[in-house]
Batch of 2 targets.
Target 1
Amino acid sequence: MTIKNLNFNSSNRVLVTGGAGFIGSNLCETLLENGNKVICLDNFATGKRENITPLLENQNFTLIEGDIRDLDTCHKACNSVDYVLHQAALGSVPRSINDPITSNDVNVSGFLNMLVAARDAKVKRFVFAASSSTYGDSTNMPKVEDIIGNPLSPYAITKYVNELYATIFSTTYGLETIGLRYFNVFGRKQDPNGAYAAVIPKFVMQLMNHESPVVNGDGSFSRDFTYIDNVIQMNIRAIASINKEAINTVYNVAYGERTDLKQLITLLKEYLGEFDPKIKDVETIYGPQRTGDVPHSLASINKAKTLLGYSPEYSIESGLKEAVNWYWKNLK
Ligand SMILES: NC(=O)c1ccc[n+]([C@@H]2O[C@H](COP(=O)([O-])OP(=O)(O)OC[C@H]3O[C@@H](n4cnc5c(N)ncnc54)[C@H](O)[C@@H]3O)[C@@H](O)[C@H]2O)c1
């Protein structure tokens, strides 16, 4: 992806934590393509070596294999860095319900280590992956940044605590921070396997194998599914912005439309059906609803548009076509 018209000086040193993961590896790739030096810190808890294998040949890319729960490692990674894009965390609501202690250690204590290291290294800005889960049980629609509800899972608590700590580091130590509340991101390199896989890659893999996708609930739950390139754009805008009003705050990162799971499966069958018409006949199975899932999620992206000039390039349809093409070429 090319960084267009974003007023971004491309000779920065950028630390991407979680850089071997889905979002992090896409960020590393774009930053390198645009001439930056990239340091990737990852412990491969959920990230994949193959996500960064092609990047290892690039002399502007440095891999630090390490854990954000270790403060010394965070200090080492932040050394001489201009910007931090902090993506490392244990994602997934069910994972945090099964093991809240590890989620808290990584997502809260690890986050705090990274803030301390970024502050000590005097980085120019600390941009971090927040989450739409922070809206919790709020029924307000679309979600606007300053109205949140009560968290519905340990994961949601960890992501909200990140925002609170970032604010304190801005006000107390003058560290510039921006939190990006991602809404159900999808696209190339997202892991389709494992118990905690996200719904789009999981359904794509099942459909490609002519297996029935299993929906939690009746398929009426909806999400503001967001294509990876829109997320990359927001990260770059967040580090490039020179608007002082745009920093030390949080933004929704989404497309601004919601799609329910039934509609999602219809679209996936249509796009995958172009490669293999039999996929159109695969039946869907509806199962029980999952604990901690919010029924509907839709973002207002007005704040990102106004303060950061965000203009999402990919709709759910155009993003899904790209994602499906990638999965068919790479994983079929
Ligand atoms: N994908 C989404 O829809 C979504 C939505 C909201 C928020 N987020 C957040 O975005 C970020 C990236 O998510 P993703 O979807 O790319 O997930 P991912 O699991 O693919 O990436 C997370 C990366 O962090 C690394 N990591 C985990 N624990 C670590 C540790 N202790 N030390 C160092 N590295 C560690 C993993 O190995 C992995 O490479 C996470 O903070 C996640 O909570 C993602």
Note: The chain has eleven helices and 13 strands.
Target 2
Amino acid sequence: MKYSVFSLFRHSLSGHKNWEPAWREPAPKAEYDIVIVGGGGHGLATAYYLAKEFGLRNVAVLEKGWLGSGNIGRNTTIIRSNYMLPGNNPFYELSMKLWESLEQDFNFNAMVSQRGVLNLCHSDPQRDAFARRGNAMRIDGVDAELLDAHAVREMYPFFDFDNPRFPIKGGLLQRRGGTVRHDAVAWGYARGADQHGVDIIQHCEVKGIKIEKGKAVGVETSRGFIRCKKLALATAGNSSETAAMAGLKLPVESHVLQAFVSEGLKPFIDGVVTFGAGHFYVSQSDKGGLVFGGDIDGYNSYARRGNLPMIEHVIEAGVAMIPALARVRVLRSWGGIMDMSMDGSPIIDKTPVGGLYLNTGWCYGGFKATPASGYCFAHLIARDEPKDVASHYRLDRFRRGYLIDEKGQGATPNLH
Ligand SMILES: Cc1cc2nc3c(=O)[nH]c(=O)nc-3n(C[C@H](O)[C@H](O)[C@H](O)COP(=O)(O)OP(=O)(O)OC[C@H]3O[C@@H](n4cnc5c(N)ncnc54)[C@H](O)[C@@H]3O)c2cc1C
């Protein structure tokens, strides 16, 4: 069923009671050409592009919970391509270009809103670093504008510009950055993949990987054994656990990241803004709530909830940026499990196990990468060679010393 203004009108005549489900609920088959573990954004996007771009339709996505129950439905919805390093920038710009045509492509309203992402700077050296980043972006054909404090004040007069500790000196603006409704991305890709024949199987947990003669040949699941020719892991925060089923130890740690939503307010922040003197990022949803977040809780965990000290830390940074926030009430908070890699950049690669492919290490930046990650992972699985813009995201780069350390923080996951 194609969604359009005409189908909306037609269904209104029958009280919207006859819409078809957006995707089927098939029983798992005994065998598929390709099994993807993880029905988050990346797994679903991979299935969609495998079917649509590479004509591979005998594909299943196995999800242990429900679609959108993982990080795809828990993030703060920010998209941007303001990266600096050659290994990262072209990849994230491909993702931005795919976002720009995504809704027409999969015929689903994902509320892509290019409202601008502004990173604030608070010292002269930080402004120099932003100028360098902006220049690197422009060399790669990505939009970037360096703003002085006056230009930022024109946009957001209520920021604390003269804060004695963190004065605002300016910012780096990417106007094409913005937000996308996160769970609609999962639904749109699921619907698109389903229409191309992919089986999306919810409540099907992978508990083991069967390896014969060094090759992955199937998975033990809560709904029985499923054989496959190729197996792809896209399990984000659970990557270490699923990879361990094939005997692999990943350079990835799992940490909790929290997100917060305030009570509804009249619109006053029309873009995404990040505080440069601490870790705080905020945007305002169409319902009026401020959607914001900050650092990860600094310990390893698989619990999808965080702790109070980090809430205090995040809100302190927010109030340093916008003092009026002190009067706003927080309505909701939750956590997601982050797959923190050792250099802050992802892994899209084959593994030493035959027929086993890996997509992980997204830290807290994987939502914006969803379309490019899906496209590049599908390319790798279908052709057995990496797509050019993802060719640096190798699993063995840590052993070889070819890190893609965008922040220059070294092998310290909680700093990335
Ligand atoms: C609070 C928060 C804020 C964030 N903010 C942003 C942001 O603003 N911008 C940005 O770019 N990124 C952000 N991120 C990061 C982003 O959400 C993730 O990097 C990205 O969603 C991870 O990819 P995914 O969507 O495939 O993950 P997920 O949705 O987590 O998908 C992985 C799936 O694998 C399933 N799974 C795991 N183990 C198994 C198993 N054994 N069998 C079957 N299924 C299994 C899980 O249930 C899960 O559904 C944020 C994350 C969080 C938690």
Note: The chain is about 30% helix and 25% strand.
